[in-house]
Amino acid sequence: MRLLNTISYILEEFTGNDIPRYAILSHRWGNQEITFQDIQNFKNFRDYFKTRKSTKSEGWAKIKGACEEAVLAGYEWIWVDSCCIDKTSSAELSEAINSMFNWYRKAQVCYAYLSDVFIGFSEDNTRTSYEFRNSKWFRRGWTLQELLAPRKLVFFNRYWVDLGDRKQLWPLVSSSTGIQNEVGWETASVAQKMSWASKRETTRTEDKAYSLMGLFGVNMPPLYGEGENAFIRLQLEILRTSDDESIFAW
Predict the structure, then answer these.
(1) For position 248, what pLDDT does the model report?
(2) Which of 7, 26, 105, 228 is 20 to 30 A from 152 in CA distance terms?
(3) pTM for this model (two decimals)
(4) Distance (Å, rounded) from C-alpha 49 to C-alpha 31?
C-alpha cells in the first residue's frame, strides 16, 4: 500500500510486514480533491499551501489537517484515498477497492472528517448533535465500511475540532445509521447489513456494490460500466460464501 508521510508529504510504498503504523482518513469527496498526480507533481507541499493560490485549496487543507492530527498522535504515515491511489491504473484501483476494508481495519486510528459540521459540542450541544446526525458523511456508500472497520475512529468537524470518538458518540451514530450495536456488528444478518446501506448514495452506480464487499468478506474485480450488474455479482458472491437466506429479501 502507498502511504503519505505526515511531515514531508511524500508518498512511499510498503508491502507485507514492512507496512508501518498509520492513521487513515475517512471523508466525503468534494470538487477539489488532491490526487496522486498532484502530490507527485508538487514536491514542496508546505510552501505550496502557504501561497494559498491553489485551485484545490480545500483539498490541500483537508490533507494538511489530517496530517497535523496524525503528527500530534505520533503517526508518521497516513492513508488518504484521494492521493494514495493512482486511479489511472485499473490494476491498482482494483487492488485498492478489494483491500480497502482491511486497510481501514488495520489502521491505528481513523479520522472521520465531517465537513458539514461547523461547531463543536462545547459550543452548542443541541445544534452540534443535529448537525452531526444529519451529516452527509452518514449518507455516503463508502463511509459505511469506514465507520465500522476501524479499531478506533475519531470524528472531527470542518475546522478539525475533535468531536469525540465512535464509542462516545455511538447513540448519535446509531440514530443516524440505524445500526444498533457498535460491537458485534459482524454477526448481523445479510439483510440487516443491506438495510444499513440501502439509504446511502454513491456517485457511481457500481460503487453501491463495491463499497459493500468488505462488510460481507467477499472479493470481486470491479468492472466500471457494468451498472446494476455489479450488485447482482455481489449477491452471487455472498451466496457462494454464506448460507444466510435473508439475502433473498434483497
Answers:
(1) 78
(2) 7
(3) 0.93
(4) 17
